[in-house]
Amino acid sequence: MGLQKNPLLYYLFLFPVLLQLLLLLRSPSPLLGGGASSPLAAQKSALLQWKSTLQNPEEVLNSWNPSVFPCNNWAGVVCNLRHGAIKSINLYKKGVIGSLDTLNFSALTPLRRLDLSFNQLRGAIPNSIGSLSNLIFLSLAANQISGPIPSSIGNLSSLSTLYLYRNNISDHIPPELGFLGKFVYLDVSGNQLTGPIPPSLGNLSMLTILHLQTNHLSGSIPSELGNLKTLNDLGLYENNFNGYLPSSIVNLTSLSVLFLYTNTMSGAIPQGIGALVNLVELDFSDNHFSGIVPPSIGNMTKLKLLNLFSNQFSGIIPAELGNIINLEDLDFSYNHFSGIVPPSIGNMTKLKLLHLFSNQFSGIIPTELGNIINLADLDFSNNHFSGIVPPSIRNMTKLKILNLYSNHFSQSLPSEMASITNLVFLELSNNEFNGTLPGEICGGGALQHLSVLDNHFRGVIPKSLRNCSSLRRVRLSGNQFKDDISQAFGVYPHLYFMDLRQNNLYGELSNNWKLCDNLTSLLISGNQISGRIPPDFGKMYKLERLDLSANKLEGEIPRELGQLSLLLNLSLSNNMLRGRIPDEIGSLTKLLYLDLSANSFTGSIPAGMGNLQDLLSLNLAKNNFNGTIPVQIGKLTSLQILLDLSQNSLSGEIPTQLESLDKLELLNLSHNKFTGNIPSSLSKMESLQFIDFSYNNIEGDVPDFRGTTSVLFTNNKNLCGHMHGLHPCNSSSQGHGARRRSHKVTFIVIFSTVGAFMVLILCTIASVSIRHWRKGRPLEQENIVVMNRNAFSVWNFDGKAVYEDIIQRTENFDEKYCIGKGGSGSVYKVLMSASEVVAVKRIHPTETENPLHEKQFRSEIQVLTEIRHRNVVKLLGYCSSPQCKFLVYEYIEGGSLANFLKSEEGGRELDWAKRVDIVRGIANALAYMHDDCSPSIVHRDITSSNILLDLEFKACVSDFGIARLMQSDSSNWTLNAGTRGYMAPELAYDPRVTDRCDVYSFGVVTLEIFVGMHPGDLISSLSSPEFQSTPVKNVLDARIPPLPETTDAVSDRVIKAIAIALTCLNTISPLSGLTLVRLNRTDITFFPKYPPALFFLAINPIPKFPRTDCRCLSFSLAASPLSTSAMSVGHDNHCSIARHSTDGRSSARCNTSRRSFDRRGEDGRWRLPFTTTSVAAPPDDAPPAAAPPNTALPDTAPPWTKATCAFGFGKKLCWELGLANPGYIRAAPSSFPGTGTEEPEPFLLPFETL
């Protein structure tokens, strides 16, 4: 009979159940949080108390409610129901703001896992954290924690994982960490830790990962680390370690990753290094290691990366290196290696990158090099290689970068180079090649950079170049090419630099150049070009440099050239041009250099030239101009280098308005028909070094040009004055004895001419004048008056008097006048007069002790005096005496960019438009130094402290060339090589530099300008997955109004500037580093127009130099839509990305070093490896599982329809992958099984399209 039919039996059955439930409710239960002694109740109370002190803008902690059972509904909380306690707290990336001071750790002793990483926790780690005696996992990574690591962490005897990376933790590493015998993962990288590595860390016998990189640790590496037999990954890079590498390092036979780069380690590599047979990645770059490379290194057959860049290694490359057949990246550049490249290098057929540049290698390139069929990047530049390029190079069909710059290669290039159809970058300059360029040099249509300048190439321009629309930068100058320029070149939509100078090109200029929309520099001087300048040249609106000098051009200057509003340099000298200068030239208001000399121009000088107020040099010599000098020329107050109006038919009086040109150094008015007196006001032009009034009809008193090196005035009327060679104006002989005076003057002329000629040879200004007049007549023997000179050589000043004046006014360089200090010297502000202030840089005394370097010092100074650019601080003079050396600069009133950015008020004053203009000014200065100076000048120390701002916020770069003045054997040479945090890694300890060093520093400074502080943490984090989807607006300076969510003119310039900065930091690619791309001439095809809200920092991922780039080059990304992708990384330490289109026909795969991904563990930052295999999740308490072997995706794999599931750090993850923004794959979680662990956020995988 059922219970429903018998109510009595029903209640009798129910009664005992209700009774037990009532008793259960009346008794305290740990599961329900009852009872004062319940662990759960204490934990709940402690967490609620802590929550009350926190800020949580994302309101994730709203679920932490006193009335809610913690084990079911509290975010990030996981309980062990059997023991009635919270065992795991995971608040990874929850936007928590606060400190740990108010967290009662003693109430949380049952806790097994605590993850508070990627929040905004501040303050120190409390000592009470040592009470978490059951803790096995602790992550406080990526917060703002400061103070020391408490020694009480040594009490956490069960701890296996400790992540404290990316904080501001300081002080020493506590030795107590060495007594935590269960440690498996220890990462304290990216902090401010100092002192040595505690030897006690050698006790951690179970340790597999030890990351101490990117701190300020010092001392030697303790030999006790050799006891860590299970260690798999050792990161000690970017510290201040010194001393020798301990020989015990060879005991770490389980090691697969060993990174020591960017320290000051010295001595030789231990001979037994070959015992590390499991090593996959070895990076000793940027140190002081010396000696030979041990032959035993050939035993490391699993190596895929071997980087010894920028050390002091010498000797030969051991032939045993060829045994490392799995090697993919080999970089021995910037060392002192010599000898030949061993043929055995051809055994490394998997090699993708081979860098041997800047060594002393000689001999020929071995034929066996052609066996390396996977090579993509080959750089042998700056060596002593000779002979031919071997024909076997045809086998390197994957080669994208070939750099043989500055060697002794000769003969013709092999025609077999036509097989290299993927070539993007070809640099052959400064060799002895001859013959013709291969006909199919751009047969693959991928070539972007072609530079063969200063060789002996001849013949016609290859036809494949005419149709090579991918070209961006071309330098063919200094050869013997002979071809019709109108037929040899085509239309290049991406081209920004074309240099064809000093060849034998003929024909007429084509209108096709106007179709090169991005062209900024067109240099065709020194050829045989004839005909007229096409009016359509006025449509090249991005043009900045146009040099058509030394050709056979005729006709008039087209008025349309006045439309080139960005033009900086216009040179049409030494042609057969005629007619009047069009008034439209006055519209070129950004012009810095204008040279129209040695033509047949007529008429008067247009008054509109007074609008060119940025001009540094104006040369109108050797024409047929007539009339007077327009008074508007006096408005050209920026003129510094030259004003040359000589050899014309100008007449009238010299206008007094020229006195406004107070920066001018060379004034030439000779061979004209000027009359009247020389205006006495011209003596106020204190910068003048050279003046020529000769061959005119000038008379009267010659002003006292005190401080001027030389004044030429021969063949004029009755000139008089107090200068040597002139009779006094009050002399009685002025009216009598003309013949006797004539003989006397003639004698003085001859005598002074010879003397002055000797002085001019030694004078920098003479070299300037010779440079500008080189294509004209040689200087004639004329009457030269030389001012008093002495051993102190202070240019623009009166020698010893000014030296003594500076010493007196600074009270012998007293500290109270010091306004800045650096590695090379100290800077003092000196008030020379009521209206003249200069900056005096005193070179450190240690730099002046060796007299053997005096000649080198003067030679370098001579080069620096020729630097004249509106964005470069002007060098006014120098002193070189036995007592001291100092340099005299113009004083920039505003102060340094660094001070502006550090100041709250200064930061607000620099709005976005000003910041972009500052970046442009720095870029223009560097481009001038690198491209326009001959030889080019590398700064070596671009920092925000070396960028000065005037009162209008114009950027002026200071200290150009200072590093070159320092003695190479001086004690502070490394200080002068760059500033930590700004210098390119190749500049860290090696004086042999290229302009790429400045480009890297420019990238750092540019980010600093927009972020508002030094971007060190940002740069080191850009390759981390959590930053891959960070909008750039999130890291911009918050002191000024944010950029608008949609694109406008200013925000577009900011975004492009940041994109360029990221490219400059990516110095692994010479395509982005060899030449600085100015902001106003950038080809933005690499950087689509993103509004700030959609621009991600992953737009151009930054691997650490010289890391392997982790971008996948794809030819099909934009061609067809993608439905899914898969990603896997296995024990081969490589990431593989396979993609399939919806039609299943296109796919691409990229294998790159895993260094570009974070290899963390269970801290929420994605830990690769994982495979595309679904497996069951292990228990929560299980240790991290070893990664299964990589599962490669076959080319024939069908497209996935929904999601790809992957196994990673103990969890099964399912991701939906698809095309996001152009060039990106977006990975978003579609399912995430498991309890108590938060779902990961989407991230972007960047791809580059070619």
From TrEMBL:
User: What is a GO molecular function of this protein?
Assistant: ATP binding
Polar residues bias spans: 1144-1154
Q: What is this protein called?
A: non-specific serine/threonine protein kinase
Its localization reads:
Cell membrane; Membrane
For whether the record's keyword set contains Transferase, the answer is yes
The membrane topology noted for this protein in its Swiss-Prot or TrEMBL record is:
Single-pass membrane protein; Single-pass type I membrane protein
User: One Pfam match, by short name?
Assistant: Pkinase
Q: Which organism is it from?
A: Platanthera zijinensis
Q: What is its EC number?
A: 2.7.11.1
Which SUPFAM superfamilies does the record associate with it? Answer: L domain-like, Protein kinase-like (PK-like), RNI-like
What keywords is this UniProt entry annotated with? ATP-binding, Glycoprotein, Kinase, Leucine-rich repeat, Membrane, Nucleotide-binding, Phosphoprotein, Receptor, Repeat, Serine/threonine-protein kinase, Signal, Transferase, Transmembrane, Transmembrane helix
InterPro entries to which the protein is assigned, alphabetical: Kinase-like_dom_sf, Leu-rich_rpt, Leu-rich_rpt_typical-subtyp, LRR_dom_sf, LRR_N_plant-typ, LRR_R13L4/SHOC2-like, Prot_kinase_dom, Protein_kinase_ATP_BS
